[in-house]
Amino acid sequence: LIFSEKTKKAFDVAAEKQELRDRYGRNTFGQSCLLARRLVEHGVRLVTVNMFDTVFSEVTWDCHADGGSLAVNLDDYRDTLCPMFDVAYTALLSDLKERGMLDTTLVLAMGEFGRTPQLNSRGGRDHWPGVWSVLFAGAGVRGGQVVGSSDRLGAEPRDRPTDPAQVAATVFGGLGLDLGARLPGPENRPMPLTEAEPVSELFR
Predict the structure, then answer these.
(1) From CA 159, how far away is CA 136, in angstroms rounded?
(2) CA gap 111, 34 in Å, rounded
(3) Which of the residues in the chain have pLDDT under 50?
(4) 3-class DSSP assignment, residue 28
(5) For residues 76, 77, 81 and 83, what is the CA-based torsion angle, rounded to 10 degrees?
(6) How far apart are CA 143 and CA 203, in angstroms?
(7) What is the pLDDT at residue 59?
(8) Which residues pair with 108 in a beta bridge?
(9) Looking at residue 5, what is its pLDDT?
(10) What is the C-alpha to C-alpha distance for residues 14 and 27, in angstroms, rounded to an integer?
(11) Burial (CB count within 10 angstroms: exposed 0-12, middle 13-18, buried 19+), residue 166
């Protein structure tokens, strides 16, 4: 990758006030969210922040409680993971808003699947593709609403299920892309950018 001098300055998180760095959380995820704001502020159009480099032998969302390299349990969610996420995510949204950037920045928080609605025999939760949550903010998203719901166990969608293709279409729309656009495909056959509809309720 080749960065301009302007973009290189964005990586200097130490230039921020100590109070703001504390506000994001003095951990890798919190400081990465602060770096994301700096990158956007310096003209970077797309930024991805991962909470962790690996799920093994660390406290992460992969809480199988297996007693080995995936030993995380539900208590770790309560004591470490959820507070870490809440602090950094809310700091990012507030910081973007205070700088007048939230209306033009789409912030998406998600994983690739949910966790089982029941604990396993070890006190952990395993992979569960049936239900998980995605958070949208900024770029015209109307906050304070929930689109869709699960059954009472969080095991299956109850109403208004949303699939990954719709999430992608929503992101494309939030970025201002033409959802009817077609891209070059194999054998010179154009392919649609998306064949799904965005989650329009987010912007009403």
Answers:
(1) 19
(2) 20
(3) none
(4) helix
(5) -110
(6) 9
(7) 94
(8) 136
(9) 74
(10) 14
(11) middle
Record the tokens describing residue 192, joined without a space: 């649609």
pLDDT of residue 7: 73
Question: 13 in helix, strand or coil?
Answer: helix
Tokens of 82: 């959820």
- Predicted confidence at residue 3, as pLDDT, reads 66
Q: Residues 117-158: pLDDT tens digits?
A: 999 999 999 999 989 999 999 999 999 999 999 999 999 999
Name 118's Cβ contacts closer than 8 Å, sequence gap at least 6. 125, 153
Give backbone dihedrals phi and psi of 184, rounded to 5 degrees, phi first. Answer: -60, 135
Please state, in angstroms and as integers, the Cα–Cα distance from residue 29 to each residue in 11, 14, 32, 53, 197, following that order: 15, 15, 5, 10, 32
Distance of alpha carbon 123 from alpha carbon 16, whole angstroms: 40
- Can you give the pLDDT at residue 1? 59
Helix (H, G, I), strand (E, B) or coil at 48: coil
Q: What is the pLDDT of residue 2?
A: 62
Helix 82-98 crosses helix 28-41 at what angle (to 10 degrees)?
20
CB distance 39 to 8 below 8 Å: no
Residue with token string 């969210």: 33
Query: Could you tell me if 108 and 135 are in contact, meaning their C-beta atoms sit under 8 angstroms apart?
Result: yes
Nearest alpha carbon to residue 177 among 127, 106, 124, 119: 106
